[in-house]
Design brief:
InterPro entries: Amidohydro-rel (IPR006680), GlcNAc_6-P_deAcase (IPR003764), Metal-dep_hydrolase_composite (IPR011059), Metal_Hydrolase (IPR032466). Keywords: Carbohydrate metabolism, Hydrolase, Metal-binding. The protein is α/β, with parallel strands linked by helices and 381 residues long. It folds into two domains: 82 residues, Urease, subunit C, domain 1; 285 residues, TIM Barrel, CATH 3.20.20. Helix content is 27%, strand content 27%. Strands 1, 2, 3, 4, 5, 19, 20 and 21 form an eight-stranded mixed beta sheet that branches. An eight-stranded parallel beta sheet has the order 6-9-10-11-12-13-14-15. A hairpin with a 2-residue loop joins strand 16 and strand 17. 54% of the residues are buried. Bound molecules: zinc ion (ZN). The site of zinc ion has 6 residues, from loops.
Length: 381
């Protein structure tokens, strides 16, 4: 057993100073505050007031460290996961950008192997049923109209590990596809869309439950047309993804969405591409050339903002700097995305019986330690 003592804990009930967490056999076995005597154990790590928070959960990430999940080789995928883990992400989906269907099917099959091997938690297909008019960094030429056979091919290739599908609800046949995906255990996220408010609500009623990077690659609301953004913000059953990098989203909107939706409905994602953790330069994202300058990724020739170079520890700091309380920002990085994945009963909170995925953070919320399933990936100094 390991006991981490004298820590500032972010618990489901709020922030507790002078707390401790006991870990054994890969699980959190007990959690307490200063009033509760901690188990006596030779292996006590005194954290001197530093934070302990649950490990982060990323619902939307394409790559990092110079690599892209689209290639889906075990060594490169392992390197991507390791890069983000060093920045606090202990549970991750791998996001596939829109590509020709055969290529997406091949990538999904390769990623499913990596889920079986424990490298990843699941797969997110960002497309191919998206609106070419709102392609953003995605390749409009590879986009398809909603097609049950194409969906079934992706689901079969994923062997139960395709967890999220992003689609545009205004496409003909999209509502039937939402139902079909949900029936097969795939959560539907609305994104890369120009759908109306009413059409978006219809997709939510059909079973869609997530918003892919809200505000990005979709028109904003106007006084007469709340649009997809209005419906996704409003509906209590929807979890909205935000990219808190100060580039995709203004800090004022970031904190406003927390006030409007509550942290229980906000998932802070990275949407990171290969350049995350790899510096400026030229990269491929899906099939497209992307140039990164000053940490901002732009699609060659279009100037569109591509995926981010964000990591989740930086998203935490940015969100707190935007005025969101630490406990709420942590909720949006941990329990909210864990629940969105149907894993809220075993990850995303410092609760006895949960997997011991946790982070030690310094006073500036920088990563000091990363524990995955009870083993230090990086031990705190
Ligand atoms: Zn993406």
């Amino acid at each position: 057993m390991t006991v981490l003592s004298d820590a500032t804990l972010v618990l489901p009930v709020g922030v507790v100073q002078g707390g401790w967490v006991a870990v054994s056999a890969g699980e959190i076995t007990a959690v307490g505050g200063p009033e509760r005597s901690r188990p006596r154990d030779p292996d006590v790590v005194d954290l001197g007031g530093r934070w302990i928070v649950p490990g982060f959960v990323d619902l939307h990430v394409h790559g990092g460290g110079g690599q892209d999940y689209g290639g889906a080789r075990p060594d490169t995928a392992g390197a991507i996961t390791a890069l983000h883990r060093a920045h606090g992400t202990t549970t991750s989906l791998a996001s596939l950008t829109t590509a020709p269907l055969d290529e997406m099917v091949r990538s999904a099959a390769a990623l499913a192997d990596l889920v079986d091997a424990g490298t990843l938690t699941g797969i997110h297909a960002e497309g191919p049923f998206l609106s070419p008019a709102h392609a953003g960094e995605q390749d409009p030429a590879a986009m398809l109209g909603p097609d049950p056979d194409a969906l079934d091919r992706l689901v079969r290739a994923g062997r139960g590990h395709l967890r999220v599908l992003t689609l545009a609800p205004e496409l003909p046949g999209a509502l039937e596809l939402v139902k079909r995906a949900v029936e097969q255990g795939v959560q539907v996220a609305i994104g890369h869309t120009g759908a109306s408010y009413e059409r978006t609500l219809a997709a939510i009623e059909a079973g869609a439950s997530l918003a892919t990077h809200l505000f990005h690659a979709q028109p904003g609301p106007t006084q007469r047309e709340p649009g997809a953004v209005g419906a996704l913000l409003e509906h209590p059953d929807v979890t909205v993804q935000l990219i808190a990098d100060g580039v995709h989203l203004h800090d004022a909107l970031l904190s406003m969405v927390f006030r409007l939706c509550g942290a229980e409905r906000v998932a802070l994602v990275t949407d990171a591409m290969a350049a995350a953790g790899a510096g400026d330069g030229r990269y491929r994202l899906g099939g497209r050339e992307v140039e990164v300058r000053g940490g901002v990724a732009l699609v060659e020739g279009t100037g569109a903002i591509a995926g981010s170079t964000l990591t989740q520890d930086a998203a935490l700091r940015r969100t707190v700097d935007a005025g969101v309380p630490v406990a709420e920002a942590v909720t949006a990085l941990t329990s909210t995305p864990a629940r969105a994945l149907g894993l809220g009963h075993r990850i995303g909170a410092l609760v006895p019986g949960f997997t011991a995925d946790l982070l030690v953070l310094g006073p500036g919320l920088e990563i000091d330690g990363v524990m995955v399933s009870g083993a230090w990936h990086r031990a705190p100094r």
